[in-house]
Amino acid sequence: MSTTTIDAIQQTDRPQYVRLTIVAVITLGLLYAAFQLYMIAQPVFGALLLALAVGFGIVFGSNRLYNSRFIFPGVATVMLFVAFPVIYTIYLGFTNYSSFNLLTYERSVEILTSRGTVDASTEQPFAVSPDGDGYRIWLPQSGLLSDTVYLTEDLEEATLSPANAPDVLLEARDAIKLRAGLQTLTLTTPDGVAIQNSGLRTFASLTPDYLRLDDDTLERTADGARLVADHSTGFFMTEAGEQVPPGWRVNIGWQNFERVFTSKGIRGPMVEIFVWTVVFAGLSVVFTFAVGLLLAVILQWPHLRFKPLYRILLILPYAVPSFISILVFRGLFNQNFGEINLILEALFGIRPEWFTNGNLARTMILIVNTWLGYPYMMLLAMGFLQAVPEDHKRAAALEGASAARVFFRITLPQILPPFLPLLIASFAFNFNNMVLVLLLTRGLPDITGTVLPAGQTDILASFTYRIAFGFSSSEFGLAGAITLLIFLVVAAISYANFVAMRKGAERRAAK
Amino acid sequence: MIVERPRDLLVKKVLAHGFLILFLTVIMFPFLMIVSISFREGNFTIGDLIPRDPTLEHWYLAFGLDYTRADGTVVNPPYPVILWMWNSIKLGLMAAVGVLVISTISAYAFSRIRFRGRTGLLDALFIIQMFPTTLALIALYAIFDSMGEVSPSLGIDSHVSVVLVYWSGVVLHIWTLKGYFDGIDTALDKAAAIDGATPWQTFRFVFLPLAVPMMAVVFVLVFIGAINDYPIASVLIRSEDQMTLAVGSRLYLNEFKYLWGDFAAAAILSGLPITVVFLIAQKYLVSGLSDGAVKG
């Protein structure tokens, strides 16, 4: 039975118009933000916010949709911050979004047309005159005085008009202190010529480098070359085929995917990284599960004393924030200054190269991940072990079965099915365990002969992270394409988990 | 294992304790080491596991205080650890409160209120929760980069953006809380309905007080998850004074500026409070965790 039979009309404790006013104000605020986004040429984000505003207005404004008010916040959050970014990432995979093609078309044009070259032959001295909170610029040679300017570091424009010399002028060294503000100032003479600060004491006229002829064509003033916007590559091109940066974002269809599958320098490391990702996630689950289960079995032994103490100490690695533990290991494993190599050298006279040898780096990552992950498995296993009926074990022991045999034939088969969804979830978690890789090795050591930065300990997620946010160039589009491939794998894993959960639910229902 | 001879039992006990103690020694090694390093002079291994001339230099620096060495040189703190800690706690609290509000209301709706498309929505949420937000980082960066042009407080390098992304973790907790609400007797809401309560009043005065223990679990889990996040914060935060602990701590172990000793003190200082919170809450957390949550 549900409670929806109660009608919303009962809500009379607060007048209707108060709620409607609040709803209207919030809706208008959202609509304004949507409009702003549309104005800066982000129609997709604008539309999304528009949908949010309309949805909010309808759900909270209408009485008939009273029940939907409870579900709206959750659904809106998931749509905005999970579903939309996922879809948008896939969309970016089909664009050339990167550090070379970062902007929208309008912004690229704006940047090109705002560039100018100072004409040294028109240089004339200037002086600054204080005026209330701001300043006026005085050009003695042409007898022009500017409107009040504030000389902040933001772009500023002002017009000049003929006037008499102002009474108070700043000393030259005080004017120099305002240099940062002067450099972002553009003054317009009565004839319409733009002049800018061109030196410590001078202003000079500015010739724009590019003139906009029509929507898609620019003219370069230096050599009169015509630049045509190429909307398939996202660059302005001269007739000679020269690309003029900055570029803008355009759709390039399947090109990123073609690069991934055909370029040897990408496909090779991708395959290697994919295999390592699966091996890493699989072995992490196996090791943490084995160690956790073993400890849980020992802790469940009725004859053991000091159980609470052991339990607390054993879950410590789980209680300490993982980013701290990972960085601690990064230091301890350090080749030259690390304490682990110090001990190994004292005992065996060896200094393993944990960070430069691929296999050792992979071993190290697995050691650290087992250390981090076994307490979680141990806690879960302790719960599941309690559910195994004691008399089954007793019967087997009376028949003369050894403890190990009892464990593998009676206990393990009983706890494995309920454990399965959690193991799959753990696999999925480790498949994308970026924090570990980024903080411990950053994917290093590098795989040789690659086009992109790719490391031997990189997993797919950290590989895309480095493509998008690495030190060299940022290839967001390509990273988006690879992320789509990860999404497919994750979808397969989640489906497997879904099936496992259903089966588990059926089994419980059958009991 | 049930009928055992006393001598066998003794041998087994010794073996079990021996194994556990040996295992714990290996597990505790990093903790003991980091404590020792935080009191050791300098930032490099000098060949001693136990410091010969213990110094408080690293601890002074971790607390943001200048330290004067015996020879008179003054060392300044390399990074604002306390500020980072405050940033982390602030983000963690804002994330936890937001997630708690959204997930409690949604979980109540999914558990008690009938509306069209309920089963479909639940299945969709189950699939969606499998996609970690960290995979959509590129899109999130692009989104907040553009939002910054509308208002800097929603752009890159703003804490608001980071918290909004942390809110995306609600799905998992909707599931946890929905399971909890499902276990509450429907007689309670019927009784409330007969007394004339609206669904909102039922939620506010019947369900919310009952859910407090489970909400505490969700709160702590989200808080710890936010503190532990590295990828999201590292992409959305740029300037040093906006950084969280997870992003900032990494700077200590830079190849060109390796501050191992300073890091050790800062790590203990920042790790200890969170560890204590976790250990106090762990009894209650375990039940929440086994419902499918994976610590991130």
Topology at a glance:
The complex is a heterodimer of chains A (511) and B (296).
Chain A lengths: L15 H24 L3 H19 L6 H25 L12 H10 L1 E3 L5 E2 L1 E5 L2 E6 L4 E3 L9 E7 L9 H6 L1 H5 L1 E4 L5 E4 L4 E7 L1 E5 L2 E4 L5 E5 L4 E3 L5 E2 L10 H8 L1 H37 L6 H8 L1 H4 L2 H11 L6 H10 L9 H29 L3 H9 L4 H29 L2 H7 L19 H10 L6 H35 L1
Parallel strand pairs in A: 6-7
Antiparallel strand pairs in A: 1-9, 2-9, 3-4, 4-5, 5-6, 7-8, 8-9, 10-11, 11-12, 12-13, 13-14
Helix pairs in contact in A: 1-2, 2-3, 3-18, 7-8, 7-18, 8-13, 8-15, 11-16, 13-15, 14-15, 15-18, 17-18
Chain B lengths: L5 H33 L18 H6 L4 E2 L5 E2 L5 H32 L5 H11 L8 H14 L8 H9 L2 H13 L3 H9 L4 H30 L2 H6 L8 H5 L3 E2 L2 E2 L1 H30 L7
Antiparallel strand pairs in B: 1-2, 3-4
Helix pairs in contact in B: 1-12, 3-6, 3-7, 3-9, 7-9, 9-12
Could you explain how this protein is built, in words?
The complex is a heterodimer of chains A (511) and B (296). By secondary structure, chain A is of the alpha+beta class. Chain A has three domains: 8-92, MalF N-terminal region-like (Methane Monooxygenase Hydroxylase, Chain G, domain 1), CATH 1.20.58.370; 116-208, Periplasmic binding protein-like II; 263-510, MetI-like fold. Chain A has helices at 16-39, 43-61, 68-92, 105-114, 172-177, 179-183, 255-262, 264-300, 307-314, 316-319, 322-332, 339-348, 358-386, 390-398, 403-431, 434-440, 460-469, 476-510, and strands spanning 116-118, 124-125, 127-131, 134-139, 144-146, 156-162, 185-188, 194-197, 202-208, 210-214, 217-220, 226-230, 235-237, 243-244. In chain A, helix 3 (68-92) packs across helix 18 (476-510), helix 11 (322-332) runs parallel beside helix 16 (434-440) and helix 15 (403-431) packs antiparallel against helix 18. Chain B has 296 residues and is mainly alpha-helical. Chain B folds into two domains: 6-75; 81-289, Orthogonal Bundle (MetI-like fold). Chain B is built from twelve helices and four strands, in the order ααββαααααααααββα. In chain B, the strands form two sheets. A two-stranded antiparallel ribbon of chain B has the order 1-2. Chain B has a two-stranded antiparallel ribbon with strand order 3-4. In chain B, strand 1 and strand 2 form a beta hairpin. The radius of gyration of chain B is 25 Å and the shape is globular. The chains are: A alpha+beta (511), B mainly alpha (296). Chains A and B meet through helix 1, helix 3, helix 9, helix 10 and helix 11 of A and helix 1, helix 3, helix 4, helix 5 and helix 6 of B.
